Amino acid sequence: xxxxxxxxxxxxxxxxxxxxxxxxxxxxxxxxxxxxxxxxxxxxxxxxxxxxxxxxxxxxxxxxxxxxxxxxxxxxxxxxxxxxxxxxxxxxxxxxxxxxxxxxxxxxxxxxxxxxxxxxxxxxxxxxxxxxxxxxxxxxxxxxxxxxxxxxxxxxxxxxxxxxxxxxxxxxxxxxxxxxxxxxxxxxxxxxxxxxxxxxxxxxxxxxxxxxxxxxxxxxxxxxxxxxxxxxxxxxxxxxxxxxxxxxxxxxxxxxxxxxxxxxxxxxxxxxxxxxxxxxx
Amino acid sequence: xxxxxxxxxxxxxxxxxxxxxxxxxxxxxxxxxxxxxxxxxxxxxxxxxxxxxxxxxxxxxxxxxxxxxxxxxxxxxxxxxxxxxxxxxxxxxxxxxxxxxxxxxxxxxxxxxxxxxxxxxxxxxxxxxxxxxxxxxxxxxxxxxxxxxxxxxxxxxxxxxxxxxxxxxxxxxxxxxxxxxxxxxxxxxxxxxxxxxxxxxxxxxxxxxxxxxxxxxxxxxxxxxxxxxxxxxxxxxxxxxxxxxxxxxxxxxxxxxxxxxxxxxxxxxxxxxxxxxxxxxxxxxxxxxxxxxxxxxxxxxxxxxxxxxxxxxxxxxxxxxxxxxxxxxxxxxxxxxxxxxxxxxxxxxxxxxxxxxxx
Amino acid sequence: xxxxxxxxxxxxxxxxxxxxxxxxxxxxxxxxxxxxxxxxxxxxxxxxxxxxxxxxxxxxxxxxxxxxxxxxxxxxxxxxxxxxxxxxxxxxxxxxxxxxxxxxxxxxxxxxxxxxxxxxxxxxxxxxxxxxxxxxxxxxxxxxxxxxxxxxxxxxxxxxxxxxxxxxxxxxxxxxxxxxxxxxxxxxxxxxxxxxxxxxxxxxxxxxxxxxxxxxxxxxxxxxxxxxxxxxxxxxxxxxxxxxxxxxxxxxxxxxxxxxxxxxxxxxxxxxxxxxxxxxxxxxxxxxxxxxxxxxxxxxxxxxxxxxxx
Lengths: 281, 359, 310
Prior knowledge:
Oligomer: heterotrimer
CATH topology of the domain at 69-240 in chain A: MetI-like fold
Shape of chain A: globular
CATH class of the largest domain in chain C: Mainly Alpha
CATH architecture of the domain at 69-240 in chain A: Orthogonal Bundle
Strand content of chain C: under 5%
Strand order of the largest sheet of chain C: 1-2
Number of domains of chain C: 2
Largest sheet of chain C: 2 strands, antiparallel
């Protein structure tokens, strides 16, 4: 009886929670359409796309400087792609290694997982100290990049571990029994079958790296990545151009998600990988 | 010739294979009969190299196989779940081994097409080459699994309950086809199954696997008519097994007492098991005068009709379950009354006695 | 690449017999060696780029700090300075306090949501949809989500506007933005989902018939909650708490953006010290932060043995 009362109450509460999650973003999106003379708050003096144009450099110069997103966007995308390739590769081969039992597997597991637990500001500091000591210049494609992999590799590893966990080994054994070497078996059988998992690992790595800044802060040197550019605005007055940027970058992320969903759909349709052997007893 | 000698494989405390030795001759169909958990799949996996034995030796034509990677053993494997490559078409599944194998891969496309076409005709999959393996029936998948293995011309093909995933109709047809395909290719098939009918029907030679070792290996007919142990007889699902002891050349148990054939020279009191074929028992009325020389009185429980024969269950006074088969080709069996007492008579010459080994 | 070394197998195998190693054992060793070869790139990467930097932080915390540089002469000066400065000790205390409040807030706010999604909604599709709705905001940049609180909480922000329209307040509240409250609200919103997710997962695994049976036996909701639901969801709470703790303790951006420099977490100390090239001092703050995080995780893992639970 109490559950009957409780359920609608919790339902309303849950709706309020979702509003709490989305509220700020909705306000931000509304304010991104502020007029040219308006500030980063209500009231909206005039609905316009002025700040979007400002962001893209399509407005006449004003006292408010443009967000330097052009180069930093390119850097962030490149960095995210480099990170995706390396951490997914590491994730796949490490998870593949974990399919054979070996003594130190517990320790290795925790070592890898630690990468997603250690606060970015700490490894960032440590890497900055290390590069100082060794006299290596800090750069987004060097010191920052290796830390991005430290952060995203554990996610890729966990995704691949889960995929291998439910992988039907007999398909690989079938390939071996046909005289095909383990390397070829991995390439011709295992990899095509785990490909949907690899896509997920790549998506994880890419989005995490693209948005990562606490690890980049001390390690990227002079050239800023996109999150660092945004972080730079924290200490100064903000303008609606950053809101417009927020809306655009969110749209970009959703596009990425959509591409992933489409690729996944295709991969699953092409393979039906995990349901191919449904007759197994 | 495939030779296993004293092969042992343990998983933790469980011994799957216990000093198993067996010889599998060339160009034969060997079926391996074993209950689930008898280690039959483990045996195949050890031969194929997916598992390594803890001790013992596996050789083929004198060359040692254990320790060699599976893809260098030249032994084919047909999986119970078929384990087809789900991302490839029927044709690509079949061509897979020829195309990618380590040793001597086939690069000539014309020859490839020829050999794939040949094996497709052999297993009867014409017209399905371009289909996805997810878009064909269970029986067709079975053929793909077989064709994929046969096209690489292995010396020995291991079949792990290959018919287990098929329905009854298909199973019977596949039985005939497997035999004829093997005879044409002259390779050795080692076919593992839990069904005694399948084992006896398929195998030129039948091996019975029990508790991790080979209990008996013999031609199908002699294995069936003369099992070497009560254990083998049990696997054949055609014998009643009675436990008792020897008593002056006689078998003595709580429900029966009769003269054993050949008067085995055993001491009185030795534990004895006897096997009595289901179809060598004649059911008579309990009060039909004097009981014949060898008989057991038991109460009728139930009957099962299965096409060509009737299987009836009786329970003796001491609780022993007895099965009787009456073939319908003979005189029509009378119907029995449930719970009523009958006399199960048999010729003592049909009895196969075994000395019971201490467990 | 992955299976390198395999080629040598046959040759080595021939010797195997002589060494008294069975071919099977030899192959098992070979396979273990291959596995180790596969995991070694990842292990080396983590050792070089995670473990080594962390060791560096500890090491440099004992270096001598001069005005613009550090020298590898070992000293405890930076430690003494940190541990005797009320400002820095206060920031350590602030870090712990903010962590505790945010952890409690995410649990209190998130648990009922998890209860609804995991236990009350029994429709799989709706359950997944609700979870996806909760996760979608993560596809927005973290920093953008932090900044989004500014137009909400400011003196002329949305909340003040609504409060004034409703006549609840006459003058806009000035304590909403650039205060500790702003940091707490921001962090709670951003990290709450990390609490909701694991708890929902554990709750959705509860067999409804168990609760049904308890109800048939006359147990009230309170009793069912404390005897069945809460204990079964505890592993989810702990996992969520570990997520939230690790992220909140390492935070500095939310405080930098929403507190108007009024809240200085250990993370902020590290950032500002690095900004003024006080490496040794930043390292001390880093080591203390590491100790706090390690202690928190240890305590949380003590509460529930996760390995046993899952």
